[in-house]
Amino acid sequence: MLPRTEEVMGGQGNWDKVPWRKSRRSGSEDQGGNCVAVAASASYAAIRDTNDPCRATIVLPKSALRGVLDEIKNGVFDLR
Hints:
The protein has about 80 residues and is an alpha+beta fold. The chain has one domain. The protein has two helices and three strands. It has a three-stranded antiparallel sheet. A hairpin with a 3-residue loop joins strand 1 and strand 2. The longest helix has 12 residues. The protein is globular and about 35 Å long. The protein starts with a helix and ends in a 7-residue tail after the last helix. Pfam families: DUF397. It comes from Actinomadura luteofluorescens.
């Protein structure tokens, strides 16, 4: 079971105070900007859609982030 955001962020309850990063190669928003942004706390990472950052944020242990990113790059989650 994944932790609640409050547990991850030490009671802050959201990821708004954490810096988000995205690839420089993702393009600008007016060019489609199909990209995700990533943020990290001490033990967890969060992933969100840069086009709609208010939607759900995926929170997972940092140790699992590499595997998830590899699966995203390999199209495992692509809608077919």
